[in-house]
# Entry
Amino acid sequence: MHTDPIENDFQSGHPWKTLVRLYWPDRRPVLLVVLLYVIKASAIWILPIVTANIIDIVAHPGPHALASLWINAIVGAVSVVQNILTHVLYADHLSRAIRNVELRLRSTLVRRFQTLSIGYHSRVDAGTLQTKVLRDIESLEQLIRQLADPFLGSVISIAVAIGVTAVRMPAFVPVFLLCIPIIVVTRHLVSARLQSHNAAMRRELEAMNSLVIGMIAMIPITRAHAVEETEIARAARRFSAVRDAARSFDRITAFFGASMWVILMLFNLGGVTLAAWLCLHHWVQLTPGDIALLAGYFSTIMNSVLGLVNMLPVLTRGFDALESIGEIVECPDIEENRGKRAIDEVRGAFRFEGVGFHYGQSGQGTRTPKEDEEPQPPALEGITLDIAPGETVGIVGPSGSGKSTLASLVTGFHRPTSGRILLDGTDMAGIDFRTFRRHLAIVSQQTILFDGTVRENIVYGTPNVTDAALRDAVKAANATGFIDDLPKGLDTLLGAGGIQLSGGQRQRLSIARALLRNPRVLILDEATSALDIEGETLVQQALERLMKGRTTFVIAHRSGTLRHAGRIVFLDKGRITRIGTFADLETSRAREAATA
# Structure
């Protein structure tokens, strides 16, 4: 399995180190960004010097006063005008670095989504994952932009102001240095509370995203049950929770921002007043230009400190987002296939030896239960079964008996927590499931279609399909008729989910997709349970063609698909209660109906 180098960047243990490692591949544009920023922003600290010089020229004109005036004016003008070119170059290099990291992060997250276990995806909803790809990376982008402009500018401005003051008025350097403890103390007081409030807001946003995604998916059912107002009220409660969390974050941000503004403005006023008082007592010698320069630098330093303080919410959100992204990148719950045996050929012989699976046990595809959570019974226990190549086996049982869990073990979505499964005599724990799944097809009750053409949906996962093979698969799936009636046939756009197709039509596209794969192992998971009689007949005919000569696991309640099963395995509470034939199933159901 390919590992993106960016995954190692989150192992530094410190957010600043992680940030440096993320941008290390783009260090050249980042260094250019710093250099260009120093040049483009030079007017900020050059103009106060120019202004001070002009004031001194006016206060004490000398023999070359006019020439000095024009030299200072030209220097000031050049420092301002050059900003156009340098700012464009600065923005271009900054964008390059940011967008490259965004691309790598999003690609890494998507790759990680594809390698995380199915158990992980069953626990974490799509809204949470979507938030990480969209909002968290946007927050990280804002963090970098803040570091590249306000933060960098504030630090450089403070350093230049102190440096120039040290040359022209060294007595006032200690006054400026008082800004440092102000920054440190403020950050210490503010950051912890901001982080907790921002974390609460992010949790509410993730919950809101999940609710909206689920609500949209449920709209047909919501309408059918006339509970629109209930869903609206549920959404309104979640939106109110987001609003309250955001307002709490905004209030704490506003309070500290205003408090710092007051403190720094008083500090600014006190500094200028101190300079004037010292001059009046003749303890220091300052020209009018020095006073103006000192006032300008006091203002620059105070604004810079205030800018650093105002950045704390953005920094908090950015580092919180970095931690959120790291939760995915560093998550150990992945389907690990590296170094395992590749499967080039599959006959389809399965042997279950005392197989058990427990969702409550720690391991791949499972989770560790909470302390106050009651232990759950095993989903499967003591499953021992031999299946010959090409055999069709029906799996029946009441809801919660372990039917779908058994299918998940066959696909490798979950791994047994006890016992083992052999595929053609090889322990499946040691195989690369990616190579095995090339010989596997699944037709389930929920047919997944994406926003593309009919052709793209059928050939999905099967490269280099010829038109002849595609037509044969469509014909075998009983899909030729309705596809030909579509406006553009195979090139008709379906839209997300193929909502304009009936359930039977969607299912036949799924069967055509499976036929193209020519699998050796087939899993039918309630493939006809949601269809009407006419749709079931057409799908059943297509399934019979699909099942021929393939090892097939059939999970179904209706008898049609099970009719062709050589054996039927009866499950109850995760155990095999008996193994019989289709006739045994019909007899059992007749007895249950008579008893009812």
